[in-house]
Design a protein that fits this description.
It is a single chain. This protein is an alpha+beta fold and 510 residues long. The chain has three domains: 33-93 and 147-306, Metalloenzyme, LuxS/M16 peptidase-like (Cytochrome Bc1 Complex, Chain A, domain 1, 2-Layer Sandwich), CATH 3.30.830; 94-145, no CATH class; 315-448 and 456-509, Cytochrome Bc1 Complex, Chain A, domain 1 (2-Layer Sandwich). 45% of the residues lie in helices and 16% in strands. It has helices spanning 27-31, 76-83, 96-117, 125-143, 150-157, 183-195, 202-218, 221-233, 247-250, 255-265, 281-292, 341-352, 358-366, 400-416, 421-438, 442-456, 461-471, 474-484, 505-509; strands at residues 34-38, 44-49, 55-62, 161-167, 172-179, 271-277, 315-321, 326-333, 370-379, 386-394, 490-497. A six-stranded mixed β-sheet has the order 1-2-6-3-5-4, sandwiched between helices. Strands 7-11-8-10-9 form a five-stranded mixed β-sheet, with helices on both faces. The longest helix has 22 residues, at 96-117. The chain is globular.
Length: 510
């Protein structure tokens, strides 16, 4: 489940037993399984006892993503995520004392090279080449001490599974699972990589991230569209910038920049760790205190100052390419803590959840103008005011403009006609089924607990989400639809196929 979808936790926890069977639960019985503690350094830990199998999963949520980047270092949050797998001063090196000196030389050489190559006036190309060679020679020297992939190999060798992480517009997360008898090893490994991170192989990994950008954005028509779409929908807020970063920044920021970013944002008060599985809080909490308590306390980053101004005119982005046409439109809405969030979740379910959703039935089944149609709440993230998005892939022979007209017809129907009793009931029923599926795993539950704690300050918000969903009325849906889905609040993104229009790619670019 990705970051956007996690807001679908407005699902009925009250009817899910930890064995995966639907049985009655109330908040007090749930709390008996969950323990929460804030360490002296500010880190929050949540433990959920779920003794079904001798394994546990964890989810480390860091309350920082691309939202904390500034021009010049875009993509750095994602870049540090990669660095967190490179080991520590004890893992991933044959001689850290020597490696540390070598890495310092790499930074000195890179600073000199980067300054010269970015000089606008009086750049000496011969000097640039010499400095680049010196920098690459320094990298080669530092690489002599690297034990590649040692962190991941330790996890795998000791029975770990699912070692992974992700970065979004407003969070970074790390997760995997371990046998229950490896609890202390996990506490050591996970705390060490944040206590003693090492920016080894930084510039090689930067090239890897640059290649990710090339494949997912620069070489992908849909990726380019989404990037342009967000840049048009948001003119001030960091949500307008790509998580992977701009290409020029990916070729410029340094390991020193990454270390500074880490020091500013990876403070315990900005982190939540959730552990779910065959563990006991009485054993977990002392270990977390012992190992994670070593992380030095720091000031939690201040709230962002920039707030996206209200949109007062429709915006549109059109790409014309010899490729599959595409359509997307988004409407500004409040963040996930808003009182109407459950209403937006209900609209998402009604309009786009499966083959019985309104968009699928209207555009795919009945009109046959789309191969797929849907929508979702909280794009690109839930922490700040965001977008409610509708999108569709036109069927062969049909255009994005046809899709836009059909989507807006369904929106107008939503604004002017009450949904049926059956549809309102279906929203809640499907939500209950979704919860059983999503929280059936230790991994899913750990993510929910940590994410809700970070977003709302209390994992118990899970229960409030359920109550809020049950309170949504037909009038609420019409009210929110009329408030939100208006032309002046709309941003449209389209890929128009030059092949479909009967023009060549060359003609379209002239």
């Amino acid at each position: 489940m990705n970051t956007v979808q996690f807001r679908r936790v407005a699902l009925l926890v009250l009817f899910v037993g930890f064995s995966g069977m639907a049985r009655a639960q109330d908040l007090s019985s749930f709390e008996k399984r969950v323990s929460t503690k804030v360490l002296a350094n500010g880190l929050t830990v949540i433990v959920c006892e779920r003794p079904e199998a001798p394994v546990f999963s964890f989810f480390t949520h860091v309350n920082v993503g691309a939202d904390r980047e500034v021009p010049g270092i875009t993509g750095l949050a994602h870049m540090f995520e990669h660095m967190a797998f490179k080991g520590t001063d004890k893992i991933g090196t044959t001689d850290f004392a020597a490696e540390k000196v070598a890495l310092e030389k790499v930074e000195q050489a890179y600073a000199a090279y980067d300054l010269e190559r970015r000089r606008d006036v009086g750049r000496d190309e011969k000097r640039v080449a010499e400095l680049e060679k010196g920098w690459k020679d320094a990298i080669a020297d530092a690489d002599k001490y690297v034990v590649k992939n040692e962190f991941g190999e330790i996890v795998e060798r000791e029975g770990g599974a699912g070692l992974n992480a992700f970065t979004s517009s407003d969070e970074t997360a790390y997760h995997y699972s371990f046998p229950s008898n490896r609890l202390e090893l996990w506490a050591y490994l996970e705390s060490e990589r944040f206590l003693h991170p090492v920016m080894r192989e930084f510039y090689r990994e930067r090239d890897v991230v640059f290649e990710e950008r090339r494949m997912r954005s620069d070489s992908s028509p849909t990726g380019r569209l989404i990037e342009q779409f967000l840049g048009s929908a948001f003119i001030a807020h960091p949500y307008r910038r790509p998580v992977v970063g701009w290409a020029s920044d990916l070729q410029a920021f340094s390991a020193t920049d990454a270390a500074n970013f880490y020091n500013q944002n990876y403070v315990p008060a900005n982190m939540v760790v959730a552990i779910v599985g065959d563990v006991k809080a009485s054993e977990v909490l002392p270990l977390v205190e012992e190992y994670f308590g070593r992380l030095p306390a720091g000031n939690k980053p201040e709230p962002l100052r920039t707030i996206e101004p209200p949109q007062n005119a429709e915006r549109e982005v059109t790409l014309r390419e010899a490729t599959q046409p595409w359509f997307i439109e988004g409407y500004h809405k409040p963040d996930a803590r808003d009182a109407d969030e459950a209403v937006y979740d209900s609209i998402q379910d009604l309009m786009s959840n499966g083959r019985v959703s309104r968009l699928y039935r209207a555009l795919v089944r009945d009109k046959k103008i789309a191969a797929f149609a849907g929508g979702f709440n909280d794009f690109p993230g839930p922490k700040y005011p965001n977008l409610f998005v509708f999108f569709a892939v036109p069927a062969p022979g049909h255009t994005p403009d046809e899709i836009g007209q059909a989507v807006r017809a369904e929106i107008e129907r939503l604004k002017n006609q009450d949904i049926s009793d059956e549809e309102l009931k279906m929203i809640t029923t499907r939500a209950k089924a979704d919860l059983i599926r999503q929280l059936a795993s230790n991994e899913g539950l750990a993510q929910q607990l940590a994410s809700m704690q970070a977003l709302f300050g209390d994992w118990r918000e899970l229960f409030k989400q359920v109550a809020n969903l049950d309170k949504v009325t037909k009038a609420d849906i019409r009210r929110v639809a009329n408030k939100t889905f208006v032309a002046s609040n709309r941003t449209v993104g389209k890929i128009e196929s030059t092949q479909l229009a009967g023009r060549s790619t060359q003609e379209a670019t002239q």
